[in-house]
Amino acid sequence: MQLGLTIVRLVLAQLVHCFYWELPNGLLPQDLDMSKDFGLSLSKAKHLLAKPTYRLM
């Protein structure tokens, strides 16, 4: 279990570090819908759309 959590954190850190993340179509951060959808696990009501641009060359 601990190894799995470590690997997930490592992969997420690499994604955040290696890309510039932008919102599409001039969307502003305050325009995002951050409401939650309740179920077996807590998730976003609407999917987050972000455009990655590779930054390490």
From TrEMBL:
Subcellular compartments: Membrane
Alphabetized SUPFAM superfamilies for the sequence: Cytochrome P450 (SSF48264)
Organism of provenance: Rosa chinensis (China rose)
Lineage: Eukaryota, Viridiplantae, Streptophyta, Embryophyta, Tracheophyta
Cofactor(s) required for function per UniProt: heme
Name assigned to this protein: Putative cytochrome P450
GO molecular function list: heme binding; iron ion binding; monooxygenase activity; oxidoreductase activity, acting on paired donors, with incorporation or reduction of molecular oxygen
Major subcellular site: membrane
Family as reported in the entry's similarity comment: Belongs to the cytochrome P450 family.
Keywords, in A-Z order: Heme, Iron, Membrane, Metal-binding, Monooxygenase, Oxidoreductase, Signal
Any one GO cellular component localisation term in the record: membrane
Signal peptide coordinates: 1-18
